[in-house]
Specification:
single chain, 12 strands, 43% helix, 5-stranded antiparallel β-sheet, 286 residues, alpha+beta
């Protein structure tokens, strides 16, 4: 029994040690991911400004400005311009593909060209890492001069999601560890054999099969009822046992219901246990 408890204790220590190391690793990955995310976001904004710059040059405008890039959602950016311009759809597609190829996380995205006046979509297309999933239309139809904004929505790359899954998985492992390797319930001080017939507590040796109590080389013989009653107490030392349970297991299961007889047998057992001051049956009223 002591060996089993020590084994469980070592297993818990190993589990908590590994969980601590994994937790530190995940936190480190999280900080690293945050730093990389900031760098990737800044680099992406530079690439988007370059796309805006090339679009103005293609329309013959080399003087007006590309306004600051706006991040309007978690994975959506907006390119705005100081002046109106016209554009060729095929040139726009090639320009975005050329520059966003330098962004390793921009594998799938949707481009929408919006009219400033009413936010309607003047032109749009979708680019995918799998080229057969590209959606590009209206190539060769030049768009008129107008005020446009370009919105680019990127497909989430899944790194943040995987990070959340990792944290969730570690939490689940920790939960399993607490469930299956929780501290063992303190065992009572009664030793007994596997056949549940020989009990040792204090200086008392209780032989349920022979119906005997041996206390300091003194042997007391028990009746069948006293034996059944003491076996219940010895199987659950230091625990409060309901009177109704004792009556049921000793008498009612045999079809006999008694009242004060239980008090009499408990009194007899207490007298026989008096030779061992460490062993006693305490009556809890109420």
């Amino acid at each position: 029994m002591q060996f089993t408890q020590n084994l469980l204790s070592r297993k818990r220590n190993y589990l908590f040690g590994w969980m601590g190391l994994l937790f530190i690793a995940v936190i480190s990955v999280g900080f690293s991911f945050g730093d990389n995310d900031n760098y990737a976001s800044s680099k992406r904004e530079v690439l988007l400004r370059r796309i805006g710059h090339d679009i103005l040059l293609q329309s013959g405008d080399s003087t007006s400005r590309v306004l600051p890039i706006k991040k309007i959602a978690e994975n959506e950016y907006q390119i705005t311009f100081e002046s109106a311009f016209s554009f060729q759809p095929d040139a726009l597609v090639k320009t975005t593909q050329r520059w966003l190829a330098k962004d390793p996380l921009a594998n799938d995205y949707v481009v929408s060209v919006l009219n400033c006046a009413n936010s309607t979509v003047a032109y749009g297309y979708a680019i995918s890492k799998n080229k057969k999933d590209d959606i590009v239309a209206c190539i060769g139809r030049k768009q008129p001069v107008a005020c446009y904004t370009i919105n680019i929505t990127f497909k989430p790359n899944g790194i943040a999601t995987n990070y959340v899954y990792l944290l969730g998985g570690l939490s689940f492992v920790a939960l399993l560890g607490f469930v299956f390797l929780k501290p063992a319930k303190p065992k009572n001080t009664v030793a007994k054999t596997e056949d549940d017939k020989l009990f040792t507590f204090g200086s008392v040796i209780f032989d349920a099969q022979q119906r005997q109590l041996q206390i300091n080389e003194t042997t007391e013989v028990l009746t069948a009822t006293e034996t059944r009653l003491l076996r219940i107490f010895a199987s659950a030392p230091n625990e409060t046992i309901a009177r109704s349970r004792l009556q049921k297991e000793i008498w009612e299961d045999e079809g006999v219901i008694v009242g004060r007889s239980l008090d009499m047998f408990i009194s007899k057992l207490r007298k026989k246990l008096e030779l061992d001051p460490k062993s006693n049956i305490i009556v809890v009223r109420g």
